[in-house]
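User: I'm new to structure prediction. If I give you an amino acid sequence, what do you actually give back? Let's try with this one:
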Amino acid sequence: MLSSADKKNLKRFGEHVASIRRKKKLSLRQVSYACDIDNSKISKIEKGRVNVTLTTLLQLAEALEVSLPELMDYTL
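Assistant: Good question. You get back a string of structure tokens that encode the predicted 3D arrangement of the chain. For your 76 residues, that looks like this:
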């Protein structure tokens, strides 16, 4: 079970992912195709509803054309 702090971090991470996607003017569908993850799952990630795996993080970073450290730097 996720703690409230974990849920808060997932939400902040998701907002960061959405921000990167919007800055690059990519739709959920475009990211979905680029990383072979269903667009509904990407939407859930952006809303902080999914605890992602390392594999998913790597796929997202590649699809968004950012480094993994940049993707993970959601504290900005």
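You can read the tokens as a compact description of the fold. Here is one thing that stands out. The mean pLDDT is 95.
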